[in-house]
Batch of 4 targets.
Target 1
Amino acid sequence: MAGQITFKQTMEKPMTERQREIFLVIDEWWKRFGFGPSIDDIMSQTGDKGRGNVVRVMNRLVELGICKRTPRRARSIRPSYLRVNKII
């Protein structure tokens, strides 16, 4: 597919170690459950104690184009290479 980004291309993008850790949690969660993790899910996987820190990194991943999010939808963050027809 022309223009479609792959997991490998996503992993080659410059990310901090922290961003990469959270991206991998999001990616694995989608592969395992078929929907995005909540902030609390990410916190439990990474051992974080502050929601704000996780939200800040998630927002940065969206800004960098590594992840996408649907506004005002819970659990809508997903890797940008993943195509989802409809997020309810």
Note: The two ends are 26 Å apart (CA to CA).
Target 2
Amino acid sequence: MQRPNRWVEGLSIICLGALAGVAGPAIFYLMTAITESLHPDYDPISETVSALAIGPYGWIETVSFFLLSFLVLVFTARLYQEISRSVSARIGTLSYLLISLGLLLVGVFPTGEPGAPETIHNAIHNASAGGISVLFVIACFAFAVEFRVKLGWRKLFLYTLLTGVIAVILIIMSIVVPSDWYWKGLHERLLLANAFIWVAVISIRLLYGCVCQWRILRSTGE
């Protein structure tokens, strides 16, 4: 009677991080959609996601940033457990740990009302958002180096490298276009989608490893 409990418990621990990588973006998108529905005048094409934190329902978007921060942290811990301890892996992991911190800061320091004077809150929010974008690029290139030489992960090398290149292009676009660019909301959503899809793909790979571990634990009866 105790054997199944042991391998089921082991499976739960192993899968936790991978599931967090899937759940984080999904919950974030769901809560963002809910907040958008409560802001009838909100334009997702021209307005950023952070703008949803303004107003009486802004707390929903703020909570979504907090949850995403925590789940990204759990996902990072699981990924680090799976890969080696090489320099590139450590750089990628550290970058994602800082991304988790950046998401927390974005939630703690929401953006201000449009046209309002610049404040310390705004400065921290904008710096955190910009830092997240740069850190994601660093993480992609670092993990691409790691995946290129790691058995079982080589198929994700080119995809991870391409994801980093796309992120660089989108960041350059945000620098060269005017601050009042109408399409900035869409642009930000492309940045997010690029990052979230990568996390989802890596999570699926981690879940595959989880299934393999599940089979081992079940076959040994531990």
Note: The mean pLDDT is 87.
Target 3
Amino acid sequence: MIMLNFILFFLSITSSFSNEIQNTSWININNSIYELRIYSDNYFAITKYNLETKEFISTKGGVYSMEDGYYEVLEFNSIDSSAVGDTLYYSNVKIELKNDSGKMKIDGKKFTKNSDEDQLSGSWLMSGIERRGEMRMRDVNRPRKTMKILAGNMFQWIAYDISKKGFYGTGGGTYTAEDGKYVENIEFFSRDSNTVGKSLEFNFELKDGDWHHKGFSSKGDPKYEIWTQRKQ
């Protein structure tokens, strides 16, 4: 992997990469360490965690592109905040897809594609949250964001601030969305490892393109959130 502003390099692709990678998730497992990659709309997150010990290790992500090769621009990094804003170019990427299965090799590391889950797939920003019975709306264009990305049966939320290069927390795992019921099965949580293994069920509906999400948090507190699909 090379970190530069401009570079010419060879990219090996065996599928329609620019279309097929969108809204997918991939996993690499090595000695109980999971490395999860979620590609949702134009955004991505890479997270490492140990499911056996419930240890959260790290996460980073931001914007990805396949124009003139494959590269990533970091918006958050839990380990190294100084890397926020960096562009990461990958010179060795290979994708193989067949039906709903697939393999990806990036910088010598092999990933397998997770099953597809179309409901709610995409990148979402929290635009409203209920406090003391009152819905408080948020400007989704501000640098301080809570983003949730869903693809390939996996979800992850991340709280961060681009302008301050701040990382404030993350959690994720598998999800299902069917008949108005949205269920999260938590596999990693940076703030409280005791949350790992819990399943949270919410009622959801889409209103004018926004995702309304109502239920209870991992602490048992009532939760009503509105999420807006990210456009920039």
Note: The chain has two domains: 17-113, 122-229.
Target 4
Amino acid sequence: MSACVTCPTSRPPSCGSPRSGLSANVLWSEHCAVCHGADGRGVPARRGLDPRLDLRRSEMLAANDHGLVFQRIAYGYAAMPGFAHKLPRGDIELLVELAAELAKR
């Protein structure tokens, strides 16, 4: 386990970014799947309007640029809304990890 500033000996579950307690899959289905689809490939009807909905085509995810992906989810980009006002930082971090996983499938 890695150390944390407030918990120098180990990283207990209470240490780290705040989270809602929802799983990444629940967060994805509630906030992302409507455009990106359950599998990250994009909803076909919307994908024709914006091919960036297919996460397998994401240059950011291919480059493992999780910082930029976090920014896009938090603050939005083009037609994508931001979620920083709706989700705690830890939830956005979970979505970044899930998006990276879906992009590899």
Note: The CA atoms of residues 72 and 82 lie 7 Å apart.
